[in-house]
Write a structure and sequence with these properties.
Number of strands: 8
Largest sheet: 6 strands, antiparallel
CATH topology of the largest domain: Beta-Lactamase
CATH class of the largest domain: Alpha Beta
CATH superfamily of the largest domain: GAF domain
Strand order of the largest sheet: 5-4-3-8-7-6
Oligomer: single chain
Length: 259
């Protein structure tokens, strides 16, 4: 039975905005959301919440989490978010920041965002050196053996991280890839403490990389800023010397999110 307060609050939200408000709330929380959480925070009636969630799930904007009851962003909502941050005026400012970082370091810089199966390169500025590693925009790379992926893993809740590490065997891309879940967990915890991540020829032989987080106003990771280079020019120790340049660039990128 819907009480009078709930009916009154629901009546204040236009019908054509209710689904958008639910999608906004799910995206804003950054974790899987139960219908009861939405009922409490939005004040919509239980039947309304369940009906709208079912519609959003059927259309691919939301998808069920592992518990079968909670909902998180679905493929269409994730694609919408990518298209939004890739809009022309935002991308112009973003590329200017990336180009400044790449020019100062002298190597390729990447902006990557997390997806369900790995990190996706959203933008990049290539080095001017003829010897370069080709990873074009739209490329998806693994979480467990890349600097950007491990940076993302370090922001997960402990039970979520444990679920990822125990889900399946970690693939070995090179002889340096960390495939032992305990060893990778230890490194990810260390990454969370120090605030940056590395790839020491773990994803690709002859390539080193360093990544830092790009955070939103609530200090949640929304992307990673990274630099990678052939080890003939920069080994990992050499690349880490540019950490402060990456951090300044990441702070500028974070500023775009609130502008």
């Amino acid at each position: 039975m819907v009480n009078a307060d709930a009916r009154e609050k629901e009546s204040q939200i236009p019908t054509n905005l209710r689904l958008l408000i639910i999608l906004e709330e799910v995206a804003k929380r950054g974790v899987a959301v139960k219908p009861s959480d939405l009922i409490e925070s939005l004040g919509l009636a239980k039947p309304t919440i369940h009906r709208l969630l079912q519609t959003a799930e059927a259309e691919g904007f939301l998808q069920r989490d592992l518990d079968g009851r909670s909902y998180g962003p679905g493929p269409r909502l994730r694609e919408l978010s990518v298209n939004t941050v890739s809009s022309e005026h935002l991308r112009t400012a973003r590329l200017a920041i990336l180009r400044g970082v790449a020019d100062e370091i002298g190597e390729t810089c990447n902006l990557a965002i997390p997806d369900r199966e790995g990190m996706i390169y959203l933008d990049r500025v290539e080095t001017k050196w003829p010897l370069r590693i080709q990873l074009p925009i739209g490329t998806q790379v693994p979480f467990h053996c890349t600097a950007s992926g491990k940076m993302y893993l370090s922001t997960l809740r402990r039970n979520t991280l444990d679920g990822f590490l125990s889900a399946r065997a970690l693939k070995s891309n090179t002889e340096r890839t960390i495939t032992d879940s305990g060893a990778l967990r230890a490194e990810i915890i260390q990454i969370g403490q120090r605030g940056y991540s590395t790839d020491d020829e773990e994803f690709m032989p002859g390539m080193a990389a360093v990544a830092v987080p790009v955070l939103d106003e609530r200090q949640r990771l929304v992307a990673t800023l990274s630099v990678h280079a052939p080890t003939q020019r920069h080994d990992l120790k050499s690349l880490i010397q540019f950490l402060s340049v990456l951090q300044v660039g990441a702070k500028k990128l974070s500023g775009l999110l609130s502008s």
